[in-house]
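Worked example

This section walks through a single chain of length 291. The input is the sequence exactly as stored; nothing has been trimmed or padded.
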Amino acid sequence: METPSGMRRIARHPAAARTGRFLGTLRTAAVTVLAVVSFPAPATTTVTDYEDIWYNAPAESQSGWGVNIAQQGEVLFATLFVYGSDNTPRWYVATLQGAGDNVTFRGDLLTVGTGTFFASPWVGIGNVQTVGTMAFAFDSATTGTMTYAVNGATVTKSIVRQSWHSDVLSGTYMGGVTGFGAACGGNGRVRVPGALTVTHTPPAIAMTLDFNVAPNSGRCSYQGTYAQTGSVGSIGGGSYHCDVNGVANAVTGNFTVDEIRATRNGWIGRIAVVSPQCNYAGYIGGVKDSF
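Given that input, the structure is written out below as C-alpha cells.
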C-alpha cells in the first residue's frame, strides 16, 4: 500500500469541524480522506481462489465423497476420491484449464492403473488412462457445479467447500480499504490506508480503521457477522460509520466482505459498500502489525 508521501489530495474539507457538516461534494470517506496520484497496473491474478476441499452440497450430505482442488492461476489440479461399481475406493486426477471467465474450468480425467507400494523402493507408475472429462462451473466463491464422466457414466453434482475450522481475525494490522465506484467523485478511486484493529469472536466481528493523512484524520468503525466456508470467510449484515476531522458519522453505510483469506501474515477480502455518499467495490485487509 502506498505511503502518504505518494498521495495527494483531490478534495478539501473546508472547516468541517467548525461548521459541523461536510460539503455535498465530499461523497465518500475515501474521497474525503485522500486519493492517490497514480495507480498500479491491474493485477495479473484475477481468478477467484478456489483451492480447497469440496464435497457434495448441502454440506455433510455425502460424507466420504469429495474432490481436492489445488490452483495456480487459471489452472486447477483436481483429485477426485469416489467409489467404483464394486464399492471400493477410486482415485482420479485432472488438470483443468480456465476458460478465461473466472468461473468455468475443463480438462481430461485420468486414472493410474498401477504404482509403487508406499513401503517399497519407487519404481514408478503405469497404465495411465484417460477415462473421461471433468468440468467445474462456479456460481460463487464457495459454491458451484461439478460434472465428470468416467467410462461413459456422467455425474453432475452441486458442490460446496468443506468446513471444519473457523479463522479468527483478531489482531492489529497495517492495511486499509481500496475500491472503485462510478459515483465516488474525482476519478472514482477509493483508498483509505491506516491502522486496522479487528476484534473477532465468531460469529461477531468488529473492525476499526484509524487514518491520519493530512489534511484529514479520523476513524471508520465496522460491525458485522462472520461466517466460514472451507478456507474462506465472509462478513454479512455489516454496517459502518466514519468520523472525519471531528465530525461524527460523516460517512455511513452498509457493507459485505467475501473471499476472506487469512494467513499467518495477515488477511484480505473483497468488500462491497452501499452508502448515501458512494457505492463502491474493492478490497479490505492488512498485514500483521504484531506477533
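What to look for: Helices lie at 16-19, 29-33.
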